[in-house]
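I am writing to request your help with a piece of structural work I have in hand. Here, with my thanks, is the record as I have it:
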Amino acid sequence: MTTLADSVLPESCFVVVPAFNEAPRIGRTLESLLQVARSVVVVDDGSADNTAEVALNYPVWVLRHPVNLGAGAATQTGISFALRQGAEYVATFDADGQHRAEDLPKLMQILLNNKANIVFGSRFLGKAIDMPFHRKVMLKVASAAVWVLCGIWVTDVTTGLRLMDAKAARMIKITMNRFEHPIDLLHQVRVKKLRFAEGPATILYSADSLRKGQRTSDVFRLALQIIAERVMR
């Protein structure tokens, strides 16, 4: 039986929410997150709308980039801030309503049960509601490409839903600022020999999330970046 303690995150777990032009959605996202988390950090990544102002209506930290730097940079800003506040665990969570807050405590249990440093929420182990077929194919191709190029296998390489311990949060330094950053993070997990696991997650697709998400061309561009980096070493 699930208890209250199993359905919420410890206060020492900070949830980082990178946000860019998410004013219409950020309120609903924060309302759901605050049901399971007490420590939430919104990073407004140079939004042109009032994303930060909406977020300030909630009991969360709000950080702001003066210009748009990209999801990777916003995620790293939030992780660094959480560590400075003494976080023992750091989660990342999309602002656009794709993720379910109730998946986070489940990922925490998987992290603890597996003695992992980081756990990734996977739509392929859970549910992907209204995911277009071409997006499914793109993600499968991305998993295979990451396995070949980076030597790490996960079922969902572009997930923004993750939970890590402080060791992983300190060791990982995201250097790819935009939508390529999940692959950058996976590469670092392998190179730094961090223990990882995956857990089921539910991802809800909408017109907004599809418009702002990764394109097939992102996968191939990232593959070329990884190859170029290896050649230059």
